[in-house]
Design goal:
By secondary structure, this protein is mainly alpha-helical. The protein contains 1 helix and no strands. The chain is rod-shaped and about 35 Å long.
């Protein structure tokens, strides 16, 4: 179970981080 949960949570964190980065830059 952990092998499937960890990548999903990691991808969500990366997605949230990229969205915040774009918002800070005013590109999105």
């Amino acid at each position: 179970m952990l092998l499937t949960i960890v990548p999903i949570s990691a991808s969500k964190m990366c997605l949230n981080a990229s969205l915040r980065f774009l918002k800070l830059n005013g590109l999105w």
